[in-house]
Amino acid sequence: xxxxxxxxxxxxxxxxxxxxxxxxxxxxxxxxxxxxxxxxxxxxxxxxxxxxxxxxxxxxxxxxxxxxxxxxxxxxxxxx
Length: 80
Fold this sequence. Notes:
Elements: H1 2-6, E1 14-21, E2 27-41, E3 44-51, H2 64-69
Antiparallel strand pairs: 1-2, 2-3
């Protein structure tokens, strides 16, 4: 979101306006992207580009491009 992007001054947004279609057919407007942002889940560390979108319920969403980069995956859902 723009609020989270503002908390990361070391990663200035790259202006790149775009529309992203969301479930239900609506659109969100993005003013730009953050490039090469490090992030982690548990002990796994990643570095990704993020499109700035004002999402109401999520800090970030990994896209199909990220999932494809780490394919194939094996996930044991019961053990999380």
